């Protein structure tokens, strides 16, 4: 049984315009992913494709004007708002994109210790600091006294001591040099090796390939493909969705061919396949009905013409 299942998730935001009038903007629609224990699922896609919103929906930290539908299950049971509050930070932990998530008024050692649910909190905090090469004196520092790398290792340490079974890392490596990126990826691999299910949200496909088991490709707020990592190779012949193939070929180490057009705005989504306006394979039926996710060649794809 998957430890985490997201089925047909949709997220909309209510935005007031004039007076009491409002409009509803749908930013995620028909999004599906599953996670297994000991597995690393990498989520890739352009900015605005819904990657971080998925993480926030799982954790139950969406803004108050968010409207959600669909089902999120943890260990086979629906993840209701009440259950999210209980599990957040204990069994489901976030490694956030920004180091600003650290409390600026609290010493970092104390912050990490608050995530320890069992055993000696100080001993576990010092053990994990030693593992991540954070000296003893770091625990008495405030976040503003840390380097960027130290702050990120502190965030990872917080997730490690929580004992979580699901770790969601939201863009943990932006702007870091190759050595620090490698270190961060090794931390995530360690989580998976210890039996955690890890979701890595990133733009850096090349780095993610080093640790991924599966890769989920998002486009305009929906999942268009879930593929074993080994299919992201060569010219992308084993990939299923036209967007996945185009994304792979756009990388500098591949053909470096840009994808024509742009991702549609949430308020201007086409009625049929969301990628159809940019797709060379688009047929008349693609513009009428949105395709559903289906199994294909040991993966999943949202495309009627994928083979």
UniProtKB/TrEMBL annotation:
Enzyme Commission number(s): 7.2.2.11
InterPro entries in the record: AAA+_ATPase (IPR003593), ABC_Ni/Peptide_Import (IPR050388), ABC_transporter-like_ATP-bd (IPR003439), Oligopep_ABC_C (IPR013563), P-loop_NTPase (IPR027417)
Localization terms from the record: Cell membrane
GO biological process, alphabetically ordered: peptide transport
Membrane topology classification: Peripheral membrane protein
Top-level lineage group: Bacteria
Record GO terms (molecular function): ABC-type nickel transporter activity; ATP binding; ATP hydrolysis activity
Catalytic activity: Ni(2+)(out) + ATP + H2O = Ni(2+)(in) + ADP + phosphate + H(+)
The protein's name in its UniProt record: Nickel import system ATP-binding protein NikD
